[in-house]
Amino acid sequence: MKKYFLISLGVLLLNSCATTLLTDKDVSPAEVKNISYHEPISFINLIEKGNQAKLNDSLSHVSTVILDSIIKNSGHPKVSKRLDVTEQKLKMRLENDLLKTVSEIRKVNKLEAVKTTALMDSVVKSENQRFALFVINSGFARRKNNYGNQIVKGIGVGILTMGMYTPVPIKATTSTYAMIYDAQKSSVVFFNYLPAIERSPVDKKNMSNIYSLLFDKFYNAEKNR
After folding, report:
1. CA 123 → CA 85, 120, 161, 221, distances in Å?
2. If 0-12 CB within 10 Å is exposed, 13-18 middle and 19+ buried, where does residue 43 land?
3. Of 17, 34, 83, 147, which is most buried with the most CB atoms under 10 A?
């Protein structure tokens, strides 16, 4: 049941309306250092036939592994350690709390109205950390040959409608969210996301570029002060 809750929440995040970079004005980028991070969560769907997408565990795992590597090797922000929760039920509770927090920020579009949970804070504090990063990746990919078949179908529709309507299939999309929260203040100090773009959610170069874009404005603002 909890697994299904995570999946449905991931779909909610993918379909919600766009927002902009949100930060806590009382906490400068220079203060947000010695950051720990949670294992990323990915919701990647695979389209095998037609345009019907289905959550794919293998692609989701690949996306998570790629993001984990990017986070560990990035300098902005530079992370100090990964927060690993090994007990499965506790890990599921933590992931639910993290996803709920991100979802709430998406709804209200402000940070000051959203508080972190006691579990989120305690996991970070237990490792003598203050800040923690959480990243979500959602999107879809198509099975080989599916994209070509959809193009052919689109051409057929174009002919039947005498060129008035020709559907163009999307090969893949990626939508990525990032949140940094302060366990001492029990509040989120950074939130940003890139809406669905036509790029593969399991391509390391693509994900690395997206990850940099999520934080560039935040850290460049500090440099320009």
Report:
1. 8, 6, 58, 30
2. buried
3. 83
What is the spatial distance between Cα 173 and Cα 100, in angstroms, rounded to a whole number? Answer: 23
The per-residue pLDDT for range 94-127, each reduced to its tens digit, is 999 999 999 899 888 899 989 999 999 999 999 9
Q: Cα–Cα distances in Å, from 169 out to 163, 208, 214?
A: 16, 25, 27
> Is the Cβ–Cβ distance between 46 and 54 less than 8 Å?
yes
State the Cα–Cα distance between residues 182 and 187, nearest whole angstrom: 5
Q: What angle do CA 101, 107, 112 make, to 5 degrees?
A: 65
Query: What's the pTM?
Result: 0.80
Backbone φ, ψ for residue 97 (5° rounding): -65, -45
Residue 44 CA to residue 8 CA, distance in Å, equals: 12
125-147 tens-digit pLDDT: 999 999 999 999 988 877 655 33
